[in-house]
TrEMBL record:
The keyword Transcription belongs to this UniProt entry's keyword annotation: yes
Name listed for the protein in its UniProt record: RNA polymerase ECF-type sigma factor
All residue ranges annotated as the RNA polymerase sigma factor 70 region 4 type domain in the record: 117-169
Residue ranges of every copy of the RNA polymerase sigma-70 region domain listed in the record: 24-88
Gene3D superfamilies: 1.10.1740.10, Winged helix-like DNA-binding domain superfamily/Winged helix DNA-binding domain
Keyword Transcription among UniProt keywords: yes
Keywords: Sigma factor, Transcription, Transcription regulation
Domain of life the protein comes from: Bacteria
A Gene Ontology molecular function term of the record: sigma factor activity
GO biological process: DNA-templated transcription initiation
Family named by the database record: Belongs to the sigma-70 factor family. ECF subfamily.
Length: 187
């Protein structure tokens, strides 16, 4: 089945500017809000989103993207890591993140991957409905409202299930608060 995103990616490979604009229009706002929830600086977030889309366009012919939305959110996440790695932290950043060095060298990428797999294993142990809602929220980057509409439940029910999932993960993973926060928020 050919999805709209697959069609747009194909159009970009064929140098169709309209396809690129459609991808931008579809995802830029959500990516900006995702970045802004972590970095409370509008200009920095705009630069991050611009970098992600510049990279997407410049690599359009060689990309092997199979799922556009997760790819874009992952790209923003790495741009955020790079921002924190390359810039001095503001006092507000230090308070929010409790300073985490995410330099992402090969060893750290491996550690991150291992920790990510551990988290995914625990997510798999959540009750079915709770797991489904958590995955929609953290891995598919859907808003509480979108999840509520999709599952035909209240936004409060979504919030309750996400809180339940986070409490389960926190109690089982026993990670420092800052590390846990980054892993859960940046997914």
């Amino acid at each position: 089945m050919i999805t709209e995103d697959s069609r747009l990616l194909k159009g970009m490979k064929e140098e169709d500017n309209a396809s690129f604009k459609a991808v931008y229009d579809k995802y830029a706002k959500a990516l900006f809000f995702y970045a802004h929830n972590i970095i409370k600086d509008r200009a920095v977030c705009e630069d991050i989103i611009q970098e992600v889309f510049i990279s997407l366009w410049s690599k359009r012919k060689s990309n092997t993207i199979t799922s556009l939305k997760p790819y874009l959110f992952q790209a923003v996440k790495y741009q955020i890591f790079n921002h924190f790695r390359n810039n001095k932290f503001s006092k507000e950043d230090l308070t929010r993140l409790n300073i985490i060095d995410v330099s992402m060298n090969v060893s750290q990428k491996l550690e991150y991957s291992e920790l990510d797999q551990i988290i995914r294993d625990y997510v798999a142990k959540l009750p079915k409905r709770c797991r489904h809602i958590f995955v929609l929220s953290r891995y598919q980057h859907k808003s509480n409202k979108e999840i509520a509409e999709e599952l035909e439940i209240s936004v409060q029910a979504v919030k309750n299930q996400i809180s339940k999932a986070l409490a389960f993960l926190r109690s089982n993973l026993q990670l420092e608060d800052a590390v846990f926060l980054c892993l859960v928020l940046l997914h």
